[in-house]
Every structure is written in structure tokens, then in C-alpha cells.
Amino acid sequence: MLTKFESKSNRVKGLAFHPTQPLLAAALHNGSVQLWNYRMGVLVDRFEEHEGPVRGVDIHPSRALLVTGGDDYKIKVWDLRPQTRRCLFTLHGHLDYVRTVQFHHEMPWILSASDDQTIRIWNSTSRNCIAILTGHSHYVMSAQFHPKEDLIVSTSMDQTVRVWDISGLRKNTPNSGPNNFETFDTFSTVKYVLEGHDRGVNFAAFHPTLPLIVSAADDRTIKIWRMSETKAWEVDSCRGHFNNVSNAVFHPKHELIVSCGEDKTVRVWDLQKRTAIQTFRREHDRFWVLAAHPNLNLFAAGHDSGLIVFKLERERPAFSVHADSLYYVRDKYVRAYDFNTGSDLGLLSVRKFGSPYVPPRTLSFNPAERAVITTISSDNGIFELASLPTQTNGEVKDSSTDGKRGTAHSAIFVARNRFAALNKTTQLIEVRDLSNSVVKSIKAPVQTNDIFYGGTACLVLSSTSSVALYDIQQQKTIAELNSPPVKYVTWSSDGQFVALMSKHTITIANKNFSDSSLIHETIRIKSGAWDDAGVFIYSTLNHHKILPSPGVFIDHGVICTLDNPVYLTRIKGKTAHCLDRSARPRTITFDPTEYRFKLALLRNNYEEMLHIIRTSTLIGQSVIAYLQQKGFPEIALHFVQDKNTRFDLAIECGNLDVALETARAIDRPECWERLAQQALKQGNHKIVEKAYQQTKNFDRLSFLYLTTGSTDKLSKMQKIADVRGDPMSRFHNALYAGDVQGRIAILRDVGLHPLAYLTAKTNGLEEAAAEILEAAGLSEADVDDVPSFGKSSLKPPPIVTSTANLNWPSMSMGESFWDRALANGNLDGNGEIPYTNGIDSSAIAASSALDDWAKEEETPEVDAGEAGWDLDTEEEFEDAVEEDEDTSTGATPGVSENEYWVRNSPFAADHVAAGSFESAMQLLNRQFGVVNFTPLKPLFLSSYQSSHAYVSPIASLPPLQVHVRRNPSETSSSRVLPVAVRSFASIRTELSEGFRLVSGNKLPEAQATFRSVLQALLLTVVSSDAEAKEWRDTVVSAREYLLGVSIELEQRRVRQDEPDNVRRQLELAAYFTHCQLQPPHMQIALRSAIGVFAKANNHATAAKFARRLLELNPDPKIVAQARQRIAAGDRNPRNAMEISYDEFTEFDICSPSVHCPFTDAGKLDPLTEVTEIGAGASGLPAPR
Question: HSE (CB half, 13 Å, CA atoms) of 449?
Fold first, then answer.
């Protein structure tokens, strides 16, 4: 008996399966009706309109309807559709408790049994009672329709079972109202009254195909009755329950009876032998109801504290795949199925394997000797070795004739003439030959639950928490992986990869387990198989999914949805071969295009990608988003139709032609603005011009014409500005075009006569100046006090080379692979194109020339060795000076800019910018006690590079070095300083990113960020007391967060590596709460500490942390949890474990008697990893 689902609830009195969906309705004694998805294990909905216990429930076989009956004498019909789940109507008529309800399989009838000693049939369409069956003299405990005929079986506390004939009701359904019952009894008759039980009968049910009835009663027996056309009689009784039997049903497909009772057991009976073959017991819960799924091998049982869904036996058929054949077990035969031809032949009978027969659990096939090993789990495990016939002559031999048996839980072939068998009890692995003689016995190196094939002479050993690859010949463990108990193992066709399947996880590994990846599923994993591209396809209860081999990561996803679980045997192209639960071969067609395309993309196999795009309809938002996410927008662009998406992709990959085309089609201002920005980056000012014209951005358009030297268009812009009446735009255009008369006219028009007069005077336009004075009513004498200005030198820049019709030069990239391939229709180069996943060496060779060119163009990187830090270059410099002196006597070099920077600043950052790394390191050591400079090397190099620029005015001359200053207006050489590479704003941004990482529980990344902030602050300059204070505050904040994050990471490490060291975990959790954190993060620290201390039963300290948490004014939900923890601490004010922590005693965290001069921490500071604890230091210099 295999439990598939279990729920905890009030007492369950009624159960009903949905015929097609994985839904189960449960009627509870507390008046609620629950609807469970037993496959997912979730509560779908709850119906709560009954008053009092609900005893009967049923789901319609073809419509989305649910019927319930309860102790409130009411029958309610509910709509089960997800969007409209509600009570449709209520049927009134019974005068006492309603015990059972049921839908008819064809007619719109509802059957109900009640304690009012009647059975009623209701028409669900007219919502009227159409028949009342009377005859029982006590409570009617159950009533059930026959699955095919017009019969009803009912049971009562009057110790009888009655069979009713309702064929007249089908022919003559009365049309009377709800209160007119005079003619009802004429349509139904009592066909049989079955007497034989000594006490009240609780339940009876028809057999689905045979003329049999099973009944369960309070006399602790289960009786089987047979019917004929004229009479019915008792066949036999099943005795074994030692209390009242609540329910009994026939198995829908096998000759079995399943019963349950108040003796807290569920029992399975052989219908032919009338003997119990299985018993399932619960410790404290009585069973009240049973339900059998109409189509699947599933049963549900309700008990005092919930329900269980179970099946009686495993439905996974034993099978093995070799080449193009599938060997599997069905209907007590080992069969061979040919994948190519579809032939299915029975080869060997295994009907005598096991007593009684149990379907084999595993099957291992040996192609060399054409033999199979089957195993069963009954009788402590048995295996049987038998040979398969080479030809089938109609008669199939039995495996017991020449088969060899032994005791083992698992048995598999490990070589051509050897197989291994595991005895779980003794933990011995026996290697046997084909005569079943033991060749070698090996003690399992770990507690092994199962063994699987691991390659020639190797085994995969599965234990409760790991899986090991074991070499039989050397008798040693080759590799081991942590994994839940492995149930199935599947190897790829080339033997390079293996899939280890557990109940909810799959581990994909290479053949020696050195590389592995794991995926977790919430739904049970059923089977899996490898396809020819190295992708693992696996099935869950309701999906086919994909998973790649190690080394190639593809986001795993769903291929197709399944109505019922299947067991995959082989994947070939677009076809998935599988076995269903009845062990019949099936094929499922699916589309592998998407995952093959992704695999080719990540393997850079452009030929196969092109082939897929041409030969398939690979299109969809998921593929487009995947290409964009992985950095291939230019590929997605070639087969995207949506205009908005095409525009986004074109902008992202810089394809201005496509972007312009789609922008015209979309024609929205924001698209034109984005296009203008991208075109401006590439220097394509013609497209920029079109974009500005579309958005009517006249100011930018005028400036663009100025930069490109388009004087004609500038004059046109002047006219447009005149038409628009925008004086500022008119003035700008006149200024750009050098039109002095136009500027004077504009100034006069807006009433700025003084400016107009000065413009005319400074440009030598005396007549215009006189006209302005005359218009203003003034004379020359009135403006004698205006100072005289020299002649204006303002004029438009001369046009050296007009670029009005030429785009700015850009680097020629040539056609991409995709442009060339999709335009020409074929690929460059000779030979056939291999459309298989893999890395094509020809693609690497084709790009070698481009790689060589790229290397020539690259800026040489600084050597990572000592050369990058070796500052002893004085000899070379002296030699160079000597050479200069030899060639040009009398020329002495002046003081360099770098030397001024070193002289003028006490900050290490400025010395680094000047390239004086040695003096910078001395300053850092003196000021902050820095002794380990290796982490600071990238900061040194980036600061130096950012402080200098290089200009090449003439190609034949070496570039000129430009020193970037932070005070460029300074003329005194004693005050010039280099640019500040790292500003406080950028450091604050990085600090904020650290805060965000802490909030997101990304503590290793947060630790690296805070350490980076502290290291960056070492190379920061301050120019005022306010900045110095801000610097110190930032150091303190970064130090406290780095300390807190380090404490929490250490606590997590101790919890994982030293789970028994609870004392250290508690101390670290407590110390974390004493770091100076922001209130939201302090709440996280306190809540974490509360959880750790509560788990360790240190309730008193947990309550103290909860009180501190309340002081931070958290959310109401957190307040409620904190108050609960305070109440728990008040009830039990003690600590189960004493630790070295007292919140009332002042203490420093990680601070010995000496302190780090930078972070104030106490040897090499573990926080910054650069400063020495206890070193003498002067601190931050005074601001400059």
C-alpha cells in the first residue's frame, strides 16, 4: 500500500473522486466540505454552508457539479467551475440526517439516503423529488446506483440490504410538484431483501461488471452477495475486522475488495479466496469512509483526523531499453517492443514469479547473452535470472522452467557474464555469474538501499543522503555526491552523462561524477530519458520537461502537459516513446525546436541555429526574450515581427536602418528620441536630423546644423523661427549663422534697445546704432557715459570640411554571420553543414584573423606580476636623460605635473594619481596602518589611468599626455591637484547597493561590497571639515555592516558545518544584534536572533530581543509575533543553554585591546584585509 497524499482535518465522513481531474471532495464532521488537489497536495476550495456535520458527498461523472448532504436535513448542489464555485440550489424534503448522496451516471438524478428511513430520488433539472423509496424500518445508512442497470442497493440499521428496481422511473418520470407523493411507489419496487448480517449494515456497493454486491456491517463482517434475474443469495463472508466495518468497495479493475472500519485498519481481500492479503493500520484514528477512483488505481479513506489517498501497488512497469528494442513486463509476460516497426511480442512468462504474483519491480537486460533479471520486493526481495528465446514459435515458455532465483532486493547486470545482487539486510553486494554462482562478495561501503548500473564493472550505490560510484574490481568508491535517495538512474546513449532521479530532485552528472547540477521539482518525478542532443527529458505527474547536461546551462522548462503520468523509455527526434500505467507502449509527439535552438545558441553552433530558423516556425515572445536576455539581440531581430519588439532589439544591437524603419511605422515621440540618441552615438547625423524633425526639436536641430556646417539649413531654421514667433530661437539661429543684422532686429523687436545698440556699435554698424538711438528718442550726448567696447570678435566658426552630406566616419564592421547567411540563402565556405549540436572548429578558424586584428588594436594591459608594481625605474629614466643631454646640451627638463601633485597633497589618492605608488603606500601605512596592498592594486591602477588622458594630434608623433586636474582654473603650481577619481556620491551609491544586498539576503555579495567601500575610502580626498565628518561616518557605517554581515555568515557556516555547536550559533546571533545597523536591518537581525534562541529553548533571551524589536515600531504582523514571543518568555523565563553573552554588560565585538587605526577593529584586520591591527597611525589628514 503506497500513500500518495495525506491531509489533516476534522473527521472525514464522505469522500468522492473527480472522474478526470486530480480532485477529491471530502465531507467533514464540522460542517465543511473540502476540495483537494491530491496530485499537488493543495486545498483548492472549501464549501461551508451546511449547519452541522456533512456525511454525504459526490461529484458528477460528466458535469462540474458537486452534491452534499448533511445533518441539517438539506441536500446542496454546488458549481465546481473555478470562476463560479458556489451553491446552485438546495433540496428540502428529508426529515432527518442525510447519510449518502450520489449522482446518476446518465439521468439527471440525485439519490439520497436518510435517517428518516427513506431513500429519495431527485431530479436535478426540475429540482423536485421524483421518488421516495420506503421499506426500511430503521436508519438508511447508504444508497448507491448500479453503474449500468436501473438498480439501487441500500443498507440500513434494520440489518438488511435491499435492492430496488427503478426501471419504471426511467420510463415514466412523474411531473408532479414537490409535495405530491401519492404515485411515487408505483415506479420502484423492492427486487431483493438480503438478510444475513447480525447487526446494522453500514454500506453496500455493486461490482462494476459482475452481478455481485459487497456489504459492510457492525457485526464485523463483510458479505458478498450474488444476484440473478429472480433471486439473490449470500456467497461468502470475509472475517478479520475486530470492530464495526464502516465501508467496503470492489476494486474497479482487479478481483479485490477494499474495506475499512472502526478497528483503525484498511484491509484488502482476495475476492476469490476471501482472505485478507494486506492490512494498513493507524495508531489512533478510526476509518469511516472509502472511495475508489473510477479510472485510476487510487483509493481514498477518511478517518478521525483527516484522509489519505493511496494505491495498492506500484504502477511503474519494469523495463529496459537496448538499441531499438524495449523489454518490459505486462500482464505477467516479459515482452519486446520494436521502436521502429512497432511489433510487440511476448517472450517469457513470469506468472509464477512470487507467491502470490507481484509485478516485477525492476528488469535488467543482457544483450550479449540475451538474458533478463527481474526482481520483486515481496518476501524480502527475490530475483530471477532467465534467458529469452531467440525465436517465438507461438508458445511462450515459463521463467520457472530454467530460471535461477535468489534472495536480493536489487539485481542488475554489470558485465557480459556477471550480475550484482544487493541484500539490504546483510548489506552485502554479491557478484554472480550466469549460473547463479557467487563469484565475489563485497561489503557495501555505505548503508545502501539500492544499486544501479554505473558502467562496466561499476555500480551506483544509493543511500539515504548520498549516491556513490563504486568500482567492483578495485572495491573502492570512485566518487560520491550528496543527493536524496535515488530511485532511478538513466545513462545517456554514449555513456558520458547520467541522470540520478529521486522523488523530487534530479542530479545530472558526468560519467565520473566530477561535474554535476541539480534541479528540484515540487511535483513527483516519474521517469526520464536522454535525447540524441545530450538533453535529458523527464516526466512528472503531469508534465514533460527538459534538463541539459553539465557544462551547458539551459533554463529548464515544460515541453508538454500530460493528462496521465507516463514512463519515458526513449526520445528520438520529435517522438517520445513511453509506457502508460497499464504498461502499454505509447508515443507522444512534441516540438524539440526551442530547446535545440537554445542549446545551439549556447554552444555557438550558428549553422544549426540558422537551419532551425529556416526550417521551423520558431517564433514567440519566450524565444525573443531568451535571445535578448542572453545578449543576442541581432539574432532575434531577424525573425521578430512585432514592431515595438523589433525597434527595441534594433536599438539594442545598433541596427539604425531597422530602427528607422520601425520608428516610422510606430511614429511615437519616445521612439524618435531613442533613435536620435543611438544615431548620435554612432555619428549618423542624417538619421538624427530626421528624428529631430519628427519630434520638432528645433533647438537641437539648429545646433546639429551648426556642428555639421549646414549654413543653408541654418538660414531655413531662422525663417522657421520667425514663423513660429519664438524670439529666443530666432536669436540662437542668427547667432549660429553669424547674422548680426538679424540679432539686432530681434533685440529691437523684444524691446532690448540697449543690447541692440551695443551689438551694432561693437560690430561697426554705426548707421544701425544711430537708428536705434533715434527710435529710442535719444542722441549721442545721452549715451556719453556708456563705456566704449572694442570691435566684437564673435563670429561663427569657419567650416574647414563640410559634413552636411557626410556621416561622421565609423569603424566598418562588415556583415554579420546572420546578415550574410539570411541574405544569401547559404553559408560561406565549402562542404556540408553539420546540423548537430556542438562547437564547430571551422567557426573558430574563420574568426582567427579578426582575433589577431583585435589583439593589435587592444591597449596593452598592465602586467599582473611584479612589473606592474615595480617603481625602481630611476636607472632607465637617468639613462634616457643622459641620452637627451648628449643630443641637446643645455636643455634641462622642468618639474612635471605629477611631481607637483605629489608635493602639494598629503592624501594617498593624489600620490596614486601622480603614479607615485611608493609614496602612496608609505602614506597609507603611516596614516591608516595599511600593510597588505594587494587588494588595493586595482584601485591604484584605475586611479592612475583615470587621472591622465592622451591626445595624438599628428599620427607620426607620439601621443601627448594630458594631466586631468580637479582645480583646472588654478594657475599657481603650488596648488594644482589631480582629479578626484572616487567621489563621495559614488561611494554612497555603492554603500546603498550594499544595504540593498543585505535586505535581499545576499550576504556574500554584501560583504564584498562593504569591504570595497572601506578600501575605496582609503583613496578618497576631503576638502572640508564637513566632508571629513562624512568620511568618518561612512567608515563607521561600512565597518558596522561589514562586521554584522561577517558575523551572520560565520553563524551560518557554524550551523552547516558544526550543527552540534549550538552555543556558538547563539552567541553569534546575539552579537549580530549589537552592530549599528539601520532600523529595517536591525529588525532582520533581531528577528533572526529570536528564531535561533527560541529554537534552542532560550526563551528568556528571545523575549528580550522581542522587546528590543518592538522599540523599532515594526509592521503589525511582526508586532504580533514579537508579543507572542514575549508571552512565551514570560511563561517560561529561562534559558536552556548558557552562553557568554550579557546585554547589560558593555562589550566590543571582535575588538582586542589594540585597535585597527582605520576601522577601529582589533592583527591583520579581517574586515578590510589590508590594515594591521595595533599599528601606529596618524589618521586622516586635514582637509585641503
Answer: 12
* Bond before 356 cis per omega within 30 degrees: yes
DSSP state of 442: E
Check residue 694 and give left, alpha or beta (phi > 0: left; psi -120 to 50: alpha): alpha
- State the Cα–Cα distance between residues 511 and 520, nearest whole angstrom: 21
SS3 assignment, position 333: strand
DSSP assignment, residue 1135?
B
- Give, for 370, the enclosing helix (H) or strand (E): none
Torsion angles phi and psi, residue 745, rounded to 5: -60, -40
Residue 803 burial class via C-beta count within 10 angstroms: exposed 0-12, middle 13-18, buried 19 and up: middle
Instruction: Specify the pLDDT at position 981.
Output: 82
Per the CB < 8 A criterion, the answer to whether 1072 and 1081 are in contact is no
Q: Are 241 and 265 in contact (CB under 8 A)?
A: yes
> Does residue 26 contact residue 15 with C-beta atoms inside 8 Å?
yes
Q: Judge residue 213's burial from the number of C-beta atoms within 10 Å of its C-beta, 0-12 exposed, 13-18 middle, 19 or more buried.
A: buried
Spatial separation of the C-alpha atoms in residues 682 and 675, rounded to whole Å: 11
Task: Give me the amino acid identity at 1151.
Answer: S
How many Cβ atoms from other residues are within 10 Å of residue 478's Cβ? 16
Whether 414 and 457 have beta carbons less than 8 Å apart is answered as yes
**Segments in the chain below pLDDT 50:** 175-184, 550-554, 825-891, 1151-1155, 1162
Place of cell 602612496: 920
**What is the torsion angle, in degrees rounded to the nearest 10, for the CA atoms of residue 596, residue 602, residue 608 and residue 614?**
80
* C-alpha span between 55 and 27 (Å, rounded): 6
Outline where 269-419 has alpha helix (H).
399-402
Burial of 941 (0-12, 13-18, 19+ CB in 10 A): middle
pLDDT in tens, 679-701: 888 888 888 888 888 888 888 88
Give dist(CA 173, CA 175) in Å, integer: 7
Q: Residue 385: which of 430, 427, 433, 425 has the closest Cα?
A: 433
In this predicted structure, what is the pLDDT of residue 545?
A: 60
CA distance 384 to 736: 98
List the one residue out of 520, 516, 442 whose CA is nearest residue 480: 516
Residue whose entry in the numeric block shows the C-alpha cell 544615431: 679
User: pLDDT value at position 385?
Assistant: 92
CA-derived radius of gyration, the chain:
44
d(CA 38, CA 24): 7
> What per-residue confidence (pLDDT) applies to 702?
83
Handedness of CA 893, 894, 897, 898 (dihedral sign): positive
Strands 567-572 and 575-579: antiparallel
Query: For the purposes of burial, counting CB atoms within 10 Å of the CB of 1122, is it exposed (0-12), middle (13-18) or buried (19 or more)?
Result: buried
Sheet with 497-501, side-by-side order of all strands: 488-491, 497-501, 505-510, 516-520
Q: Determine the length of the chain.
A: 1184
3-state secondary structure 7-55: EECCCEEEEEECCCCCEEEEEECCCCEEEEECCCCEEEEEECCCCCCEE
Predicted local distance difference test score (pLDDT) of residue 375: 92
Mapped onto helix, strand or coil, the DSSP state of residue 799 is: coil
CA 49/CA 403 separation, integer angstroms: 63
Nearest to 159 by CA among 174, 137, 181: 137
Joined together, the cell numbers standing for residue 567 give: 514512463
Query: CA distances (Å), 798 to each of 704, 706, 717, 736, in order?
Result: 15, 11, 19, 11
Residues 1082, 1084, 1086: CA angle, nearest 5 degrees: 70
What pLDDT, on the 0 to 100 scale, is given for residue 858?
38
Spatial separation of the C-alpha atoms in residues 422 and 408, rounded to whole Å: 5
Has this prediction a pTM greater than 0.70?
A: no
Q: CB–CB of 498/538 below 8 Å?
A: no
